[in-house]
Amino acid sequence: MLIVKKFGGSSVADKEHIYNVAKRCIEDYQKGNDVVVVLSAMGKTTDRLLEMAKDFNPNPSKREVDMLLATGEQTSTALMSMAMGALGVPSVSLNAFQITMHTSSRYGNARFKKIDTQRIRHELENRKIVIVTGFQGINKYDDLTTLGRGGSDTTAVALAAVLHADSCEIYTDVEGVYTADPRIVPNAKKIPEITYDEMLELATLGAKVLHNRSVEMAKKYGVQLVVRSSLNNAEGTIVKEETDMESMLVSGVAIDKNTARIAVFGVKDTPGIAFKIFDLLARKNINVDVILQSIGREGTKDISFTVARDDAEETVAILEEHKSRITAKRIEMNDTVAKVSVVGAGMQSNPGVASRMFEALYNAGINIRMIATSEIRITVLINEEDVEKAMRAVHDQFIED
Ligand code: ADP
Ligand code: ASP
Ligand code: MG
User: Fold this and answer.
1) Pocket test for ligand 2, best of 5, 12, 21, 40 (most atoms within 8 A of CB)
2) Judging by DSSP bridges, how do beta strands 225-229 and 167-172 pair with one another?
3) Of ligand 1's atoms, which has the minimum distance to the CA of residue 176?
4) Among residues 252, 136, 260, which one has the least CA distance to residue 203?
5) Closest Cα partner for 113 from 148, 149, 137?
6) Is 195 in a helix, a strand, or coil?
7) How far apart are CA 367 and CA 181, in angstroms?
8) d(CA 64, CA 143)
9) How far apart are CA 281 and CA 315, in angstroms?
10) Is 121 in the pocket of ligand 2 (CB under 6 A)?
């Protein structure tokens, strides 16, 4: 069997954790399997490197940021290989350059284009455990890129796909995917199996247990995932196309604080305004999420929407610059908001989920600022200070003990 095993930052935070991971990988290796290990940077290394970058330059070049961040994964993989060596097992660490893992050119948010398998295959044939840097790639300029925060999951799934791995295991600091973040909702339940579609919604809406693009890629290439703990042998969560269980009304609740609301007031109530606004943002690669347009009155209307918090300032700057073209009287930004979402394939055929969610928020005294829905999710925008209380209230409404 060829097994891809990915370990996140807290699973390789220090020497003890690295040795623990090394031993788990060696167990599989000694059963005769080919083992490819994908690692994140140790502990909070990536956060620390980002702070360091900001300290040197408040607005650092994205290329140099990626150059810096990529060192985090290079450290953890090299140390892992040393640990395995000390345990008497042959291994080799490889970075994106050595493999090569080709990505698009966008620094900080690159996407895989092509991954060469020759070097990995060669090392596996020599019976080495192959330890790969997560989160990074190489673009057409031969520069290092990174895949966006949490991107090591995507490295693991991409490798599992190109190597046709028999198993892709994501090890983390919780026992699997839960009905809500177990650190915020203590009575959250572990989900034994979840579909790609539900997991993709949860991940996109803020459940950072898996990088959303890793789920997208798993679905595309049919890579079945298992999410489990690096610290014990508890059964984790299987992520796959269809689950054997009857679909739950609500499979999970997610929150996302990485959001900001932009409001554009007093634009003309004529065709083309929404197009002009969102086209300006699309050209700058700014993703827009929840959108709300007021009913026109006296020939004008208001349009508000959410963007990622990191994009908020740039969004306001672009809109201010084109204020007259988009006929706006005033532009406001609020970055003390957050999203709460419920996800469940079962809600497609069950009316009333939205009203039950709103009831839970009402009972908790939480005001809703915006609402968005799709077939399998409902998202509300609320004040950031209420977000954890909201998550617990909504979770208790749908997922009983
Ligand atoms: P890693 O470093 O292993 O990649 P992450 O911190 O990226 O780990 O993701 C694991 C964390 O995701 C957990 O510690 C948990 O707090 C959080 N999380 C958020 N939503 C969920 C959920 N629905 N199920 C499990 N964990 C969740
Ligand atoms: N080290 C990177 C991060 O902290 C990638 C990852 O952990 O998946 O975002
Ligand atoms: Mg992660």
Assistant:
1) 40
2) parallel
3) 25
4) 252
5) 137
6) strand
7) 22
8) 9
9) 7
10) no
pLDDT per residue rounded down to tens, the chain (401 residues): 999 999 999 999 999 999 999 999 999 999 999 999 999 999 999 999 999 999 999 999 999 999 999 999 999 999 999 999 999 999 999 999 999 999 999 999 999 999 999 999 999 999 999 999 999 999 999 999 999 999 999 999 999 999 999 999 999 999 999 999 999 999 999 999 999 999 999 999 999 999 999 999 999 999 999 999 999 999 999 999 988 776 678 899 999 999 999 999 999 999 999 999 999 999 998 999 999 999 988 899 999 999 999 899 999 999 999 999 999 999 999 999 999 999 998 888 788 899 999 999 999 999 999 999 988 999 999 999 999 999 999 999 998 65
The one-letter amino acid code at 50 reads L
Ligand 2, residues 5, 38, 46, 170: which to mutate, most atoms within 8 A of Cβ? Answer: 46
DSSP assignment, residue 6? E
Q: Ligand 3: distance of its center to the CA of 8 in Å?
A: 6
List the structure tokens of 255. Answer: 């929150």
Where does residue 43 fall: left (phi above 0), alpha (psi -120 to 50 degrees), or beta otherwise? left
Ligand 1 centroid from CA 174, angstroms? 7
- Does the Cβ of 151 fall within 6 Å of ligand 2? yes
The answer to whether the bond into 100 is cis (omega within 30° of 0) is: yes
348: nearest Cα among 378, 372, 319: 378
Residue of 210, 218, 200 lying closest to 159 (CA atoms): 218
